[in-house]
Amino acid sequence: MADYQIRKIEESEYHTSAWSGGMTTELFLSPQEGSYAKRNFLWRLSSATVDLLESTFTDLPGYERIIMTLEGELDLCHNGGEWLHLKEFMPHRFDGGDLTVSRGRVTDFNLMLKKGCCKGDMVPLFMKSGERMETGKDACFKLQDGWGEQILYCHKGQLTVRTETGETFELKDGQALCVSGDFTGAKWVFQAESSVKAVFVSVKQITTKESEQGG
Questions:
Q1: Which of 21, 27, 160, 165 is disulfide-compatible with 191, CB 3.0–4.6 A?
Q2: d(CA 23, CA 203)
Q3: Is 55 helix (H, G, I), strand (E, B) or coil?
Q4: What local confidence, expressed as pLDDT, does residue 2 receive?
Q5: Spatial contact of 113 and 30, defined as CB atoms under 8 Å apart
Q6: CB of 63 within 8 A of CB of 112?
């Protein structure tokens, strides 16, 4: 049975700061009292603008990363190997400790996960104006059953979400829903009020047993 809490996040609640290649916006950090600067966190979700033609990623040993671009296309090279080309909304998973160089001016979307402590996924969602989806019926809906934290981030468009209890949430550009708890059996309905480009993020802490088995 579903047992979770929902919180709507406004764009004004995010934390934005400058980095050497543009601006970065921290959407979520867990735990809340953690620190990205001190590398004291379990997972972090952020978006950044890359204004340089070529830039080097921040070294994050001990973390797994997933990146996709929200605006523009990106070329990546890990540890001097072959260059990879990422189209918009194409997720790419890699080791945060890799020496990673990028080429391209983009707006990206990043999930950072502490190895051995949590695992996660990041999946794009596209809906046409007027389109309707339901959990349990539409395979493209990727929020996972079980306990964890799930985030639905609306990059562009307008989306109405209705839960099985009748709660209704409207998401527009830059807004997000954060779901914490057990999502098993949840019945949600999605209605695109306009063309939508969004991202689902799922994060679960790894149990001691899973960690011993390699996660």
A1: 160
A2: 25
A3: strand
A4: 75
A5: no
A6: yes
